[in-house]
Amino acid sequence: HTGQEIIRARGLSVKKRRTEILHGIDLVLEAGSLTAIVGANGAGKTTLIQALAGVVPPPRGQVTVDGIDPGVASPRDLAARVGFVFQNPEHQFIAHTVFDELAHGLRLRQVPDAEITVRVDDMLTRFGLAHKAEVHPFLLSGGEKRRLSVGTALITRPRVLALDEPTFGQDRARAAELLDLLQELRTEGTTIVIVTHDLQLVAEHASHVVVLAGGRVRASGPTSTLFQDERLLADAGLCL
Ligand code: ATP
């Protein structure tokens, strides 16, 4: 699918409280890409990924996901297009068991019970959580929580999966495991966008990079091109 656009932002500005945090972002994400949003602390990375996923209030400017405008789409329509994984997975847990956590998005969409069971069981197996189906999500280990949050975002089969700092607080081995999973999803046709501080991870895994500085896009393009420009990275407060 590479080459086709899946997310487009035009003149995207976002305020939180009274402060404008993103100033006129223009951006295109290619279908099938794994795009990493990088930048110094406070550059606006979290705000940007949330705006792209429709998690923050309607911004100024325009974002289209797969041709639809999140400001206009119903939350359900949007969730079907972009799955969002918070930096702290616990922020998104609402159910009392792992099974119900996964089933929730499907129940909201009135998927028949028999199909819910099949899809949840598939997801439990895929994420190595089958033996934890009846456990409370808060009792999982850190890695299990992360996998559950990804599974919850994926179960409605969104076209785009957006993850804020997916490897935060995880050791190298676990981070690598998660990245393998993201690459696998990508080969199945899901577009991935992440925020991360880990430039080594970006160099190894991301096809595209967006460099943010002060709420503006400083540069964006293929990782192989951008990461040759040490000056650009240094200017954005980053070092490889
Ligand atoms: P970090 O790498 O430190 O997580 P970031 O690049 O993800 O930062 P954001 O979290 O998007 O940046 O925040 C961008 C700026 O907006 C920061 O200066 C932050 O202090 C400010 N900000 C974030 N949320 C709010 C809010 N609710 N109200 C006011 N200012 C906010």
UniProtKB/TrEMBL annotation:
<comment type="similarity">
    <text>Belongs to the ABC transporter superfamily.</text>
</comment>
<protein>
    <submittedName>
        <fullName>ATP-binding cassette domain-containing protein</fullName>
    </submittedName>
</protein>
<feature type="domain" description="ABC transporter">
    <location>
        <begin position="7"/>
        <end position="239"/>
    </location>
</feature>
